[in-house]
């Protein structure tokens, strides 16, 4: 029998670690559809052309376990389509109340690599933030959309989307972190440019043309805490880290990440193994060199407090390899 989502979210598990008793995981275990009728939004007029299925299936690798299977195709036309398998209202309080910091974690894997879009999580609480994993030009990428300068980040070359992974998104006021496979180091850190006062988490705002095919085994919510994997581990047995398939942000070979973005004083630059001891240059929009130096570690900080407000560019060079990104100083 299908369960009401509010009942699903009341199934709390005993917390792990040293967190307050107020911080406990509410979890969805794919034992029933979160919502029976997925919502399709069509913007800019036109017909609803999105086709999609949302169903509970038996885990092909474990007959005692169920999975939430999502399969949707969005056409590549001028009409903007959005397909929402689920909205979660995280709070029993009114939407006029100030929402608390929030964490959501999702255990997922792609149905197969012919699909171009994987899981997509979106917060609409203190701010609006989206993240998704997708494939473009044969490469897997992670998108951080925060209604500022959107950024796409290359996944490590070893990333296999058909293996189980965990995507964790935290939001505290406007600041967010994205973690992969419960690595304690954020894969992406940023600040949202769109403040809100709501209590919603959206799974699957699939609006880009392409095909989505993903299995969801588990989703967990923390309201009141924007917690890292170290601060609030997943419940026991949810995700066993496999060093052979897990994503390690600091072990990514081709990685360049700058945060927070926008920034006011300190810019953090994270690089992969092959970019250690590389040279960096910071330039303004005219190409004027503002600062240069060496990146000796995987995580580096650069003082930009003397920079005027505006957009700047980072170029990192190691031998013949050159990587670049942009950032904004407020």
Could you explain how this protein is built, in words?
The protein has 330 residues and is an all-beta fold. The chain has 2 domains: 5-249, Jelly Rolls (Sandwich); 256-329, Macroglobulin (MG2) domain (Immunoglobulin-like). It has 1 helix and 23 strands. It has one helix spanning 5-9, and strands spanning 26-28, 39-43, 51-59, 62-74, 80-84, 86-89, 102-110, 117-124, 128-136, 139-145, 151-154, 165-172, 175-180, 188-191, 200-203, 210-223, 256-259, 266-271, 278-284, 289-295, 299-303, 310-318, 321-329. The strands form 5 sheets. Strands 1, 3, 4, 7, 12, 13, 14 and 16 form an 8-stranded antiparallel sheet that branches. Strands 6-15-8-9-10-11 form a 6-stranded antiparallel sheet, with no helix packed on it. A hairpin with a 2-residue loop joins strand 9 (128-136) and strand 10 (139-145). The longest helix has 5 residues, at 5-9. The chain is globular, with a radius of gyration of 20 Å. Residues 1-22, 39-47, 77-81 and 91-97 have low confidence and may be disordered.
List keywords for this structure.
mainly beta, 2 domains, Immunoglobulin-like, globular, 6-stranded antiparallel β-sheet, Jelly Rolls, 8-stranded antiparallel β-sheet, 330 residues, disordered N terminus
Compact overview of the structure:
With 330 residues, the chain is mainly β. The protein has 1 helix and 23 strands. The chain starts with a helix and ends with a strand.
């Amino acid at each position: 029998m299908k369960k009401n989502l509010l009942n699903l979210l009341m199934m709390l598990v005993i917390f792990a670690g040293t967190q307050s008793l107020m911080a406990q995981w509410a979890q969805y275990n794919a034992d029933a559809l979160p919502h029976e009728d997925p919502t399709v939004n069509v913007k800019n007029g036109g017909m609803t052309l999105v086709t999609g299925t949302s169903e509970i299936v038996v885990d092909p690798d474990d007959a005692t376990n169920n999975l939430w299977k999502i399969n949707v195709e969005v056409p590549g036309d001028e009409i903007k389509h959005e397909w929402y398998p689920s909205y979660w209202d995280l709070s029993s309080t009114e939407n006029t109340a100030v929402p608390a910091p929030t964490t959501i974690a999702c255990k997922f894997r792609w149905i197969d690599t012919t699909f171009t879009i994987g899981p997509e999580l979106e917060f609409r609480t203190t701010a609006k933030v989206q993240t998704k994993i997708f494939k473009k030009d044969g490469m897997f990428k992670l998108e951080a959309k925060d209604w500022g300068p959107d950024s796409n980040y290359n996944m490590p070359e070893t990333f296999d989307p058909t293996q189980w992974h965990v995507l964790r998104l935290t939001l505290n006021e406007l600041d967010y972190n994205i973690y992969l496979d419960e690595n304690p180091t954020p894969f992406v850190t940023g600040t949202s440019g769109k403040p809100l006062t709501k209590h919603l988490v959206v799974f699957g705002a699939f609006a880009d043309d392409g095909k989505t095919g993903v299995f969801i085994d588990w989703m967990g919510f923390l309201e009141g805490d924007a917690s890292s994997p170290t601060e609030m581990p997943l419940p026991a047995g949810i995700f066993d880290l496999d060093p052979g398939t897990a994503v390690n942000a600091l072990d990514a070979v081709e990685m360049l990440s700058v945060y927070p973005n926008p920034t006011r004083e300190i810019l953090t630059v994270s690089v992969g193994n092959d970019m250690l001891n590389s040279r960096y240059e910071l330039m303004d929009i005219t190409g004027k060199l503002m600062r240069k130096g060496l990146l000796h570690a995987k995580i580096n900080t650069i003082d930009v407090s003397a920079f005027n407000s505006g957009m700047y560019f980072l170029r990192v060079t190691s031998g013949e390899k050159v990587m670049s990104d942009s950032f904004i100083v407020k």
